[in-house]
Amino acid sequence: MNAEKRVQGKVVISTGKRKTAIARAVIKPGRGRVWINGIPIEIWPVEMARLKMMEPLLLAGEEIWNSVDIKVSVSGGGFMAQADAVRTAISRGLVAYTGNEELRTIFKEYSRPMLAGDPRQTEPEKWMRYSARRWRQKSYR
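^ that's the sequence the OP posted. Answer follows.
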């Protein structure tokens, strides 16, 4: 008979958004593994995006990081918008998982959009224009 006991812990689901990218993070007790769309964060191909996604983990510290497993699914947007969405989802999830106000203040002092998000969106293109604000030049005046 197997003597191993399964430890029941809480599971936190958090979300993060940036432009049109949406990330959903599931945080549960584990050994410090982080996956983004099924790929371990250590081998994520874009280095700048990887560093941005790891910011909340590095700020939280090794004792918090090594006690949870994080699975993130992200879609939409470009690779840096996805990185920002993942960063927001992970930081919100860690604060909700630990319930630590000190961790919340660390994240806020480092970068407020880690918890609050960034509401800016691209402006839609207007009718008969080349871009959102550009209009035809006049040859007089």
